[in-house]
Amino acid sequence: MAEDERPHLVVFTGSGISAESGIQTFRASDGLWADHPIEEVATPEAWRRNPARVLQFYNLRREQVRRARPNAAHRALAALERQGFRVSIITQNIDDLHERAGSRHVLHLHGEILKARSTVDGRMQYPLPRGGIELGDICDKGSQLRPDVVWFGESVPHFGEACEIVTEADLLLVVGTSLAVMPAASLLEHAPLDAPSVLVDPEAEVLAPPGVTRISQPAGRGVPALVRHWQREGRLWVPQTLLG
Ligand code: APR
């Protein structure tokens, strides 16, 4: 098959892109980890200690995800792809809002909340179109099911694939992430030296590493504005008018 010669937009998203859809971010003072300490709900030790609590935490979040709708940022990225741009999305998010907006190339670094997986064989995954996971729900090998999410202290199975995608970027657009979690945040270092990187985040001024262009706006405003420029001109670039 011929190589895809189109300029390649790689988008790396965090929970901030889903904030305007009503999904909580993690590290804000009113974020998810403020009420639910990581060590009680999002580590292998928490799972061993109190699986019912962990399942309940993710069951509630799954309901929140099902109620949410993609926002203008998710929709703009999907529209760009529909228009013929080459768009790859790498997301830290466990929601499915990129897919529901219509994006077709989405890699979930931290798993997907709408799937369950076996605790003895990670390849055994089950979609969860409705309901939650309860103690006693088992895989085809008879072991308890868990959410298909990556917990703190676990390896990130798709990280190598994500690095490869980033090395092929012509422009790296980062949206709504504090870049606090490794190895995900180190993805930015894999972008080619001649590919511009842009961060759209209300806190971009504080968060962006050196060399990354800052657009200090919420995703629902900053992303559609960038996309409109690209659609109008048919190329990927960083318009100076959006900065600040
Ligand atoms: N638009 C864009 N960004 C926003 C918006 C918005 N409307 N609202 C908030 N943000 C930004 C915040 O400024 C912050 O930089 O979203 C970011 C959220 O950061 P975190 O809470 O740290 O979440 P995230 O970066 O997604 O966390 C990464 O950490 O806890 C783990 O596995 C979890 O995938 C998650 C990972």
TrEMBL record:
Pfam families: SIR2
Residues noted as binding NAD(+) in the record, renumbered to the chain: Q92, N93, I94, D95, G176, T177, S178, A219
Catalytic activity: N(6)-succinyl-L-lysyl-[protein] + NAD(+) + H2O = 2''-O-succinyl-ADP-D-ribose + nicotinamide + L-lysyl-[protein]; N(6)-acetyl-L-lysyl-[protein] + NAD(+) + H2O = 2''-O-acetyl-ADP-D-ribose + nicotinamide + L-lysyl-[protein]
Active site per UniProt: H110
Chief location bin: cytoplasm
Assigned keywords, A-Z: Cytoplasm, NAD, Transferase
Class of the enzyme per the UniProt entry, highest EC level: transferase
CDD domains: SIRT5_Af1_CobB
E.C. number: 2.3.1.286
Subcellular location: Cytoplasm
SUPFAM superfamilies: DHS-like NAD/FAD-binding domain
UniProt key word NAD: yes
Binding site for substrate: Y58, R61
Residue intervals of the Deacetylase sirtuin-type domain: 1-233
PANTHER family reported in the protein's UniProt record: NAD-DEPENDENT PROTEIN DEACYLASE, NAD-DEPENDENT PROTEIN DEACYLASE SIRTUIN-5, MITOCHONDRIAL-RELATED
Chain's role: NAD-dependent lysine deacetylase and desuccinylase that specifically removes acetyl and succinyl groups on target proteins. Modulates the activities of several proteins which are inactive in their acylated form.
This protein's domain notes: 2 residues (Tyr-58 and Arg-61) present in a large hydrophobic pocket are probably involved in substrate specificity. They are important for desuccinylation activity, but dispensable for deacetylation activity.
Family: Belongs to the sirtuin family. Class III subfamily.
Listed name of the protein: NAD-dependent protein deacylase
Native species: Billgrantia sulfidoxydans
